[in-house]
Amino acid sequence: MGAQKKGATARVSEDPEELARHPLQAILLADSFTTKFRPITLERPKVLLPLANIPMIDYTLAWLESAGVEEVFVFCCAHSKQVIDYLESSDWSSQPNFLVATIESHNSISAGDALRLIYERHVIHGDFVLISGDTVSNMSLTQALQEHKERRKKDANAIMTMVVKQSKPSPITQQSRLGTDELFMAINPDTKQLLCYEDKAEYSKGFISLDKTLIADNPSTVLHNDKQDCYIDICSEEVLSLFTDNFDYQHLRRHFVKGLLVDDIMGYKIFTHEIHSSYAARIDNFRSYDTISKDIIQRWTYPFVPDVLCGNSAIRVERRGTYRASEITLSRSAQIGPFIVIGQGTEIGNDTKISHSVIGEGCTIGSNVTIEGSYIWNNVTIEDGCELRHAIVCDGVTMKSGAVLEPGVVLSFKVVVGQQFVVPAYSMVSLLQQPTQQDSDEELEYADSSSGNVELPSKLNGDITSDLSETRHGPTSELGTGGVGYIWSIFEGGHDEEWRHSVAPIPTDKLAKIMLDKDEDEELLTQDGNVLSPSGELKSDSDANDSEDGDNEGSRDDYVSFEKEVEATFLRAVHENVKVDHVILEVNALRLSYNMASVDCAGAIFYSMMKLAVESPHSSSSELHRNAADVITTWQNLLKSFLHDIDEEIEVILKFEEICLESAKEFSPLFAQILHLLYDKDILEEDAILRWADEKEGADESDKVFVQRAEKFLQWLREAEEEED
């Protein structure tokens, strides 16, 4: 790799033609550099953890290769031997036109340290992609690279382009679907320059602070809370030298990005590139591990999905999102639900039920086992009668018969859970004793076992699994009879983190408490006499009063946005098997956020249900009707929860008319049948249907089309009403 002596200065070329001659390079940070995956990352590097049975780093490298990157420098520190051994034994060591080289360090404890060391090695020659090995994407880099290079030609201070995408956080938890905190970005909509980056806003105060000069210098600044940082950066060589010049730069975002944004002396600039139809996300915590795993299984990351990465001969994809390896043993009485991955050599016993889960290679699962929403890694033994819901089970774990994992449990490597033992919700269990000190991600971005704050065996940077037998046997009482391992206690202040970052759905009582604590009257973010409109554009109080037409147009735009948010929430519930109670809370939070009424929620939910039905495979009207019936039957309680009176039920019928005329005309000939179905399911009352028809009496003929189509059903209702009288 042509390492330079320490202190050597890299030559930074400013000639675009010379830069273009260099192959596209990437720096991949392989260390987890976070405490959020403990205790697992005390024994194995995060990038080698399985994601739908494939190591995380394989997704990142496969994407970089497809995006045109020719040289990747993989920086590894903690557990570096495991990373290097894996790469050398994998196909990545022999790919034509795609060089994967490793840079090893035993002293670096932050991203800043890593980039300073890479700068000293003088291996980067031109613009490069900066990414971590826990990132999954299928985006094309072509446009982002072109934009970056064009800006560099005009302005040498344009040293970095960050990839972002739209992702509105939950109005209840202020978290994204990846479990990350709500992020505020101020962006110039014309130039796409990043002006402010704030991921630790003071939510309790209801506002964030912005420099007045920022607004004055950029009158069209838009403050976004609906953008997700993809942690894919296109950088110039100057980025590396800036880390060398500023040793206080440790965290990539908290120190480097924010440092550049407030530095008005050097004048360096950061820009954004927003992707829309492509996928990009980083696994930052257990919740994002769960979310991204589901996205992979549902093929949002195509072509980076298990059957493509492993080859169709090794694993095949079947209907309902099921992936099966070629050699598994599956009992005929076992019930395999949707969105499942089953690895090679796994055996599944009689009457076992598995849904929305990933099962690794070489696992033995007994009879009458229930596994829901869980991640079972390799060589795991689960004996008869066990129950697992929304848990992570690492390699080599044994669960004795009748053991139960409550939601949010993480069992680290080779733990043994005793017979009939119930592991409490959100427990972290390891064969390693809990560290006496808790590192903080606030202090260093990368504070894993290499930080020196954890008392562990000395062979930490190698494969320590075989060296732990003398140090990690816990008392059997902690995990029941025959159990082996320690249940880690929760540090002070960590109780909220356990459920916010877990693979388990957030408990209903937690969501309800958050909603009760919210001030329902707070609708606008205020800042020094400015108000933040729903679109995110900053406006002064004097501009807040628009004309009536403008208000109507804004209200319509708000409803369109609200409807899209409800649809996204509904689809997530469908694909991730979210409970109805949780969906009701999420939709109610959206209602408060957008200042909508209950009837607006009902209309948006019904629209989402019918859209799902029409977008599901069908080849005839009868199949479309069956799709609609299945969706309505499954989600009827969700719709009913927002229908409190006759008027609101009539609005749903009007919404259905609108759907039949505009967005899904295929439903038009089925109007009467589906109206009858809604009546049969007690979603619409007889009075609501008859009042809807009566109100159409004086309307134009064009407005009575669906009344005429439902005439037989209406007549039947009227006759039934007369008989009752």
UniProtKB/TrEMBL annotation:
Transmembrane segments: none
Localization in the cell: Cytoplasm, Cytosol
InterPro entries found in the cross-reference section: ARM-type_fold, eIF-2B_epsilon_N, eIF2B_epsilon, LbH_EIF2B3/5, NTP_transferase_dom, Nucleotide-diphossugar_trans, Trimer_LpxA-like_sf, W2_domain
Top-rank lineage group of the source organism: Eukaryota
Name of this chain's protein: Translation initiation factor eIF2B subunit epsilon
PROSITE patterns to which the protein is assigned, alphabetical: W2 (PS51363)
Keywords: Cytoplasm, Initiation factor, Protein biosynthesis
Subunit structure: Component of the translation initiation factor 2B (eIF2B) complex which is a heterodecamer of two sets of five different subunits: alpha, beta, gamma, delta and epsilon. Subunits alpha, beta and delta comprise a regulatory subcomplex and subunits epsilon and gamma comprise a catalytic subcomplex. Within the complex, the hexameric regulatory complex resides at the center, with the two heterodimeric catalytic subcomplexes bound on opposite sides.
Organism, scientific name: Theobroma cacao (Cacao)
Chain intervals with Acidic residues compositional bias: 543-552
Location of region: Disordered: 439-477, 526-558
W2 domain location: 556-725
Lineage: Eukaryota, Viridiplantae, Streptophyta, Embryophyta, Tracheophyta
